[in-house]
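Working notes for the structural subgroup meeting. M.R. asked for a predicted model of this chain before we commit to crystallization trials. I am recording the input and output together here so anyone reviewing the notebook later can reproduce the run.

Input as submitted:
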Amino acid sequence: MLWPKSVRNRLKTGGDQEIVQSYPYRSACPSTVWADLIAGADDELYFAGYTSYFLWTQVPALSQTLRQKAEGGCRVRFLLGDPNGAVTRQREQIEDVTLTVSTRIGMTLEQLARMGPVDGVEARFSAAADAVNHVSLSVFRFDDQALVTPHLARLVGHDSPLMHLRRLGDGGMFSRFAEHAEELWSGGVPAPVGQPR
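Returned structure, recorded in token form:
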């Protein structure tokens, strides 16, 4: 009653306080947002996208930056889908695009392999039992911020929406998505980075 409706509509007062920005398409999120979040992270970089290949097209000198981050003590993790898994094959049929899911995963594995062994950089495939939960939701964490993409039906990742979240406390949206990604990581299996697939 103290605030006019126009003011209330502009203020975040509930669970949406952790939403920094939302985009109707992941591709609408400026590449500078990705680069700035990666550059600003000191402790935790966690890329839990099913393919994550687009990061190398969005962020200049990404491999070099990731190496520097890891050497500076930042934990860098990639959780990918298994390129030979049943969920990957099923998703390829659903998407029906030339740049297949397994090819996109392979592109990420190739970029990681080119970096060579780096202490602090880890890669896993999500477990077969978790793959369906992983392919439908991408979580990219940068310390206490995250970019989250819930994948819509038959759309590829860049055509699905994206939310930029900032952690404000326990039990909020950031924590819920971060916990989901951690659960997937805990069940994951080491990815054969640098080995024949």
